[in-house]
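ok new one. same drill as before - structure tokens go in, u give me an amino acid for every spot. 119 of them this time. try not to just spam alanines like last time pls lmao
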């Protein structure tokens, strides 16, 4: 018997990868380090922001200091929030109903490795 339900956020409840990609574009395109959707899917899905930035700068032959990385992570988080605020993010079809039907009366929680502001 299941005692509780835990749901991951990114990719399980909401497909946020296209939104993360667009947020990275807003930060990296002006720096001359664009990432196409195809490249993002092939190389960067599954990375947290820090590792994605580190990988992209390394691939572009650009140095990335700790302070610059922190600033870029902040800018990317702000861009992501702006995209969510203006366009929204919808759960996968039928997921809300599934959660409602399986969780009561069991404890249900949302978990994520993403930034708290991204959830």
């Amino acid at each position: 018997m299941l005692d509780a339900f835990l749901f991951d956020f990114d990719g399980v409840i909401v497909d946020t990868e296209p939104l993360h990609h667009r947020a990275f574009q807003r930060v990296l395109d002006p720096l001359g380090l664009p990432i196409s959707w195809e490249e993002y899917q092939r190389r960067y899905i599954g990375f947290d922001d820090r590792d994605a930035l580190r990988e992209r700068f390394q691939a572009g032959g650009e140095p990335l200091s700790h302070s610059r990385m922190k600033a870029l992570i902040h800018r990317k988080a702000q861009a992501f929030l702006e995209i969510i605020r203006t366009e929204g993010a919808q759960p996968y079809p039928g997921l809300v109903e599934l959660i409602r039907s399986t969780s009561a009366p069991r404890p249900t929680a949302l978990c994520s490795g993403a930034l708290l502001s991204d959830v």
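Residues 1-16+91-119 form one domain. and btw The chain has a mean pLDDT of 89.
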